[in-house]
Task: inverse folding
């Protein structure tokens, strides 16, 4: 029997209310920061193109991330889902890794190669802190243990499969922080059940406290089935919302019963 996906159990938080519990802050588009206690990670935080459709991370937040100012101090790792301009800037990532010597970078090899091409002979420290995942459709998921993080990565093709964007490496990251909270960031994953059939044990073996699928997962029967049946998800918040979704009247009626990040700076505790 299909379980009911709990999408309303996360609550709005102002920054002053954030505690040592697991929490997430929305930066813009698919950019988020997640933390549990002192462990902090970023997903898709630095990009340079909204294509006239998606919100950009504010200059204030970008500058705070580069400088390591609170609440973006102590970030351990940055994860990038794929090499598209509304998710990733190689120039910005190189700058971040130069300025924040404590940050490690995990991304598809396409994104890591783009940073390497900009690096100089003085950037060995940067190169040492980058992990590229050279994955393609059909590859088995991989697991990396890095300090207090358990990093699971799986290739799920970019939306538009099988006729569009098939050359894009889109990585779904499932991260467990401090042997406790597990979050999943899905990038621009295509919402078809076929992508989740080959590795059923992997998808079901870990309870996901917070999943962050692109909002279009909530618009199709396959997407809903993935979230409710194929994954062990407790809470879900949609990401990649167009800028006009900040006005609920612009959202498709089917989305009105789902939680979606639309306003940079909003947060959830879970």
Result:
């Amino acid at each position: 029997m299909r379980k009911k996906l709990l999408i309303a159990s996360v609550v709005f938080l102002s920054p002053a209310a954030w505690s040592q519990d697991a929490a997430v802050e929305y930066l813009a588009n698919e950019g988020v920061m997640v933390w549990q206690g002192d462990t902090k990670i970023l997903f898709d935080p630095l990009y340079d193109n909204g294509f006239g459709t998606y919100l950009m991370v504010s200059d204030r937040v970008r500058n705070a991330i580069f400088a390591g100012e609170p609440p973006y101090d102590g970030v351990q790792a940055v994860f990038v889902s794929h090499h598209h301009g509304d998710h990733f800037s190689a120039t910005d990532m190189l700058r971040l890794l130069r300025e924040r010597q404590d940050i490690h970078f995990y991304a598809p090899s396409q994104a890591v190669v783009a940073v390497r091409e900009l690096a100089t002979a003085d950037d060995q420290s940067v190169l040492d802190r980058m992990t590229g995942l050279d994955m393609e459709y059909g590859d088995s998921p991989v697991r990396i243990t890095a300090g207090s993080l358990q990093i699971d990565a799986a290739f799920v093709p970019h939306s538009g499969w099988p006729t569009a964007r098939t050359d894009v490496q889109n990585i779904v990251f499932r991260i467990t922080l401090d042997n406790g909270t597990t979050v999943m960031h899905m990038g621009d994953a295509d919402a078809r059940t076929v992508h989740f059939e080959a590795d059923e044990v992997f998808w079901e073996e870990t309870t996901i406290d917070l999943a962050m699928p692109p909002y279009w997962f909530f618009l199709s029967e396959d997407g809903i089935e993935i979230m409710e049946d194929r994954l062990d998800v407790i809470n879900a918040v949609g990401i990649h919302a167009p800028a006009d979704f900040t006005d609920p009247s612009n959202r498709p009626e089917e989305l009105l019963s789902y939680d979606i990040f639309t306003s940079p700076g909003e947060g959830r505790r879970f």
